[in-house]
Amino acid sequence: MQIKNSDHLEHSHSFGQEKKRPGELRTFIVIAITATMMVVEITAGILFGSMALLADGLHMASHAAALSINAFAYVYARRNAHNPAFSFGTGKVNALGGFSGAVLLAVFALLMVWESSSRLIEPVDIIFNQAILVAVIGLIVNGISVFILGVKDDHQEHDDHDHHHDHNLKSAYLHVVTDALTSVLAIVALLTAKYFGLVWMDPLMGIVGAILVARWSIGLLKSTSAILLDKQASKTLQEKIKLQIESDGESQVADLHVWSIGPNIHASIISVLTNQEITSEEFKDRLPTELGLEHVSIEVNKPK
Fold first, then answer.
1. Rounded to the nearest 10 degrees, what angle do helices 167-196 and 201-228 cross at?
2. What distance in Å separates the CA atoms of residue 108 and residue 85, rounded to the nearest whole number?
3. Phi and psi torsions of 97, nearest 5°
4. What's the predicted TM-score (pTM) here?
């Protein structure tokens, strides 16, 4: 049998990834702010011979590079949204950007521990007034960046924890929060060292900050790797799907696979056993749109 018109068999796998996500513009704005502050601090550090300024400028540079990865992920996912080479669209690029950012966060945490530990063993001279000024300026700049990336849209406020987050945006957000935290801890440590002579507080706060950064990194690694490895969706979502498919009281879900293919987007393969004359399309119609199921394949069989 020849199908004369197969247009109805063709459908897009972009799943809305061709649209600009709110986090994309925010990330570019924060990159511009971070890069500007980086240039100012590195230039001032070289001109005035301040290691504190130079070190903070290089720290800003590392986070500007990490944020650039997040920005690239947004642009790449959008521009390749209709590329047929991606079986389920480019939604997972978002998770990949978040995963890459989480790895860099872990690297930064290790570097912070290494540097802080070496300063505990061999303390260095600190130019307190200049260092405190740099930390305060850094805190203000990072506070602005945190605010920009932390603003929620109305639809975001209703998302739950089941892979619905923009992991790429979360990665960028954690990077600027890390910077802000570093500045806060630095201010506390420098003030304590300056007025109470507790110089060891500076490297100790660095280790405390590294531990917090490592915890954020591990959390983001877990959530993004679950998506990249096609981990089964939450039990809650699975039960909702089963409830709808089995709503007639005669059908039974024999096998169910549900996995994330992008922010708030899931694909599913369902095997149903039923004695009734119900087509796969009729079963699909039972699934409400709010479940986020954009690509569903249903196999209908008779019980043996």
1. 170
2. 34
3. -65, -40
4. 0.73
